[in-house]
Amino acid sequence: MEPVDHSDGHGGHGGALVPDEPIANPGVPEHLPRPTDVDPAKEKRAERQVAGFFGLSAICTILFAVSYFTFDVGDNWHVVGGLGASTVALGGTLGLSLLFIGIAIIHWSRKLMGDDELVEMRHPAYSGEADRQRTLDDLRTGYEETGIARRPLIVRSALGSLALLGVPAVILLRDLGPLPGDKLYHTIWGQGGRKITVIEDGEEVEVEVPKMRISRDAIGTPILASDLEIGDLVNAQPEVLFNPERYYVPHAEVEGAALQTHKSKASLILLRMEPEDIKPGKGREDWSVNGIVAYSKICTHVGCPISLNERTTHHLLCPCHQSTFDMTDSGNVIFGPAGRPLPQLPIEIDDQGYLVAQSDFTEPVGPSFWERDYEER
Ligand code: FES
Known about the structure:
Elements: H1 35-38, H2 40-70, E1 79-80, E2 83-84, H3 85-111, H4 129-146, H5 152-164, H6 166-172, E3 195-200, E4 203-208, E5 214-216, E6 233-238, H7 256-266, E7 268-272, E8 292-296, E9 308-310, E10 315-317, E11 324-326, E12 332-335, E13 347-349, E14 355-357
Antiparallel strand pairs: 1-2, 3-4, 5-6, 6-7, 7-8, 9-10, 10-11, 11-12, 13-14
FE2/S2 (inorganic) cluster binds next to loops.
């Protein structure tokens, strides 16, 4: 048969040679039996292997439950490769449990289930009675080929490992509690300006801790009010996280999991605008300085970090669900699902020109929660 050139010279087939008859259907390759199809000993061994993988999965699931109650999330003693032991143990055991189930199913299907290659011709979307019946027959055949009815060992081990997978889901419900209580009412900003008693030369002396300086996030440099230009937005953290001695805070309280907790609660956005743009809320007349305002960086919807600044309007946008807060007007919500304004941190300048917090936040930071309005604190 001679190939025919169907190109029209105008890009039809780009000059390619197209055969004048369709390529013949090569058909389904001959089915070759697998060792497990012809050797009962190998079949039995594959069956035990599948059951073994399901058994390993069950063991890993039990180890997950044991790990959950053994390792404390905040326990920094058990650190593996920079990760907490709790993270490694929970992730490792649950991951292996799922992996073994996957391996067992793949092994089962490759070695023991039917491996005949089937061809289904295209047909109209509607299936006639004959097709339906054939589908049912195929399903029945497939069911029989899985050998479920003949392999109670696999069925029992599969059911056991799958049933145990519900245990982690139930255990993790425990992490829905406890309720935050008053923990969100206080942040580490409150460590500045307090009075404490220290021992000096064997004597108890009362000292006033310096007011908390506001530092640049990540690098920890305290911020001079004169450093900020109109329109600047700066991500900030309390200086105590970088320099705990200055605030009489033990290092252990600002390390590891404690550091992450403090950072997440105390994260701040600083914004400088023209002082006359600010509409101070009642009782907030002295909460800003030279047009600089400070707000919690944590969205009051479900807690995403906020950082998108509309420079001309001084609106701050949350990237998660587009809640928009007005930085000129006490952080009020002007758009989106957030239910309350961004908490504002009252700030001032210390005698060296650095920005400091006057106090802690006066309301809880982060998403709203159902205990929040129970009582005024
Ligand atoms: S978390 Fe900010 S809008 Fe949803």
